[in-house]
Write a structure and sequence with these properties.
The longest helix is centred in the C-terminal third of the chain and has 25 residues. By secondary structure, the chain is mainly α. The protein contains 20 helices and 13 strands. The protein starts with a strand and ends with a helix. Strands 3-4-7 form a 3-stranded antiparallel sheet. The protein is globular and about 85 Å long. Among the domains are: 125 residues, DNA polymerase, domain 1; 40 residues, no CATH class. About 5% of the residues have low confidence.
Length: 512
């Protein structure tokens, strides 16, 4: 209809499904309100790269979220869309991009990157640059297979004995007791990795562990002290034996304030990092100098075809400016554990018996000197030639985060009430039934008794394999446990062969 020579539009009589539709409707209405009744043709001509840069700089989110957004944009979105006009990006372009990414990366990762793309386009609609989100998914289109968001690779978990043996091996690999205490604490509390690394001594209490902070590791290597994920502040009940294990560890190590945060933490780093760092400038320094993510620098070094030419030239110039050299050794001490270093050199070899593939070295079994049981890692030049044993897998594929899954699985097996499990894990159950359920002292006591029984059973099983351990803290636990058993042992019991260790010949000749 027309009024006074001007075209007007009647509103569509339907309810918008979400905020995105409200924004789109408002933008379309605003564009159609122009004199000619059609959208401004100049809108949407800004390139995706230009808008993504403005969009990122306008965000005010947690450091971890900002890092993830930067990685998603630089490594997976800009290579395909950087020079395209916003209005010129079609749904088919995004579908083809997704198909290409799925051929290389995990489906869950591609969904995350597409979600980031969707958010950027939604804000472009809000800014009046485009009217339709090309990253929006149309319902009922495409293949049904592989759509499920809840489907993923099977998560490897272990049991109480697996936690104990993994902790022992991690301590043997590091050459100290710290890793034994940390792995046991993580396995019996379900704390997140950042919460373990960021556990301050004041929050390790006689009967509980208070989660107030975490140390989140950024791509730059900086460890940020921030609240736990989703503000999951909580008090985790601790068994007497676990509280004593942590308290004795603190008394033994006498930690002091760290130079980076000025706080005193229960656990400290490994000291001088293992090989794999860089002499002088590090990869993170190159990333800062070029104003890109460390993942982009890594792609330039290893997969240059995945990076746009302009970005590659910036990184190469930064490498030249800083004199970056691959394969050096980092001289500075590590005050805190690093996620990748801990997983690569301690946790993965402990659970699988193998060091993972790490260029230039291929995957290889951990070389062991067979005595004392369960074997001590051989070190130095010619270690493989001096080894006479190696470890068999405990739970191949288990990760540090897998211990969190393990703790939840153990609680399920013990029949723990859901409300207590969620509180302990730092999860939120928004159901109506959860609103009317509350944790009681009886629930807590039953869980503590169940976890203690599992711990003692694991100690007994380890004691049956061998009554001693090269790990001092575990050796003390085994001797104490043996003294409480009846009848007392009248003679030393030789360590028996077990499924946890094989000969060096068998380990070296088998497959990983």
């Amino acid at each position: 209809m027309r009024a006074r020579g001007r075209r007007t539009y009647m509103p569509t009589l339907r309810i918008a499904r979400d905020e995105g539709e409200v924004r789109r409707a408002a933008t379309v209405a605003g564009n159609k309100d122009r004199d000619d009744g059609w959208p401004d043709p100049s809108l949407g001509q800004e390139t995706f790269g230009e808008y993504a840069k403005r969009w990122y700089e306008a965000q005010d989110l947690a450091a971890s979220t900002m890092q993830n957004y930067k990685r998603h944009i630089e490594e997976h979105l800009l290579p395909d869309f950087e020079d395209k006009a916003l209005a010129g990006i079609l749904r088919t372009d995004i579908d083809l991009w997704e198909k290409k990414e799925r051929a290389v990366y995990a489906a869950s990762s591609v969904r995350t990157w597409r979600a980031t793309l969707h958010v950027i386009f939604e804000d472009a609609i809000y800014d009046g640059l485009i009217t339709i989100n090309p990253a929006a998914r149309r319902r009922g289109r495409g293949k049904r297979a592989g759509r499920s968001r809840n489907r993923g690779p099977e998560r490897v978990v272990t049991d109480a004995l697996g936690i104990l043996l993994t902790a022992e091996r991690a301590a043997l690999l590091s050459g100290r007791d710290d890793e034994f205490v940390a792995v046991v604490l993580k396995g019996y509390t379900g704390m997140r990795w950042g919460e373990i690394v960021g556990l301050e001594t004041e929050f390790a209490r006689p009967n509980s562990v208070r989660v107030e902070w975490q140390l989140y590791e950024l791509d730059t290597g900086e460890l940020v002290r921030c609240p736990p994920k989703d503000d999951s502040y909580r008090t985790i009940d601790s068994m007497d034996w676990l509280s004593a294990l942590v308290a004795n560890h603190v008394a033994r190590t006498k930690p002091g304030p760290c130079p980076c945060h000025g706080k005193t933490y229960v656990f400290r780093g490994q000291g001088v990092p293992r090989a794999g760092g860089h002499q002088g400038a590090k990869l993170a320094d190159v990333a800062r100098h070029a104003d890109v993510s460390t993942g982009t620098v890594s792609n330039v070094l290893n997969h240059p075809d995945r990076v746009t030419e302009a970005r590659r030239m910036r990184v190469e110039q930064a490498i030249a400016d800083l004199g970056f050299v691959r394969g050096g050794v980092a001289p500075e001490p590590a005050v805190h554990w690093r996620r990748n270093g801990f997983a690569t050199w301690l946790f993965t070899p402990a659970v699988s018996g193998w060091y993972p593939k790490k260029a230039p070295q291929e995957a290889r079994p951990v070389p062991l000197l067979g005595e004392p049981w369960p074997g001590v890692p051989a070190r130095g030049r010619g270690a493989s030639n001096r080894a006479d044993a190696c470890w068999l897998p405990i739970a191949k594929g288990l990760t540090p985060h897998g211990l969190r899954h393990t703790h939840r699985t153990v609680m399920e097996d013990l029949g723990t009430e859901r409300v207590l499990m969620d509180q302990r894990m730092g999860h939120i159950d928004g159901s109506v039934s959860a609103r009317y359920a509350h944790v009681t002292p009886g629930m807590r006591e039953r869980l503590m008794l169940g976890l203690t029984e599992q711990w003692e059973t694991a100690l007994d099983a380890r004691l049956a394999l061998c009554p001693t351990s090269p790990v001092r803290v575990l050796d003390d636990l085994l001797r104490t446990r043996a003294s409480t058993m009846r009848p007392p042992r009248s003679r030393s019991v030789p360590c028996r062969q077990s499924r946890w260790r094989g000969s060096a010949r068998r380990c070296g000749g088998g497959s990983q």
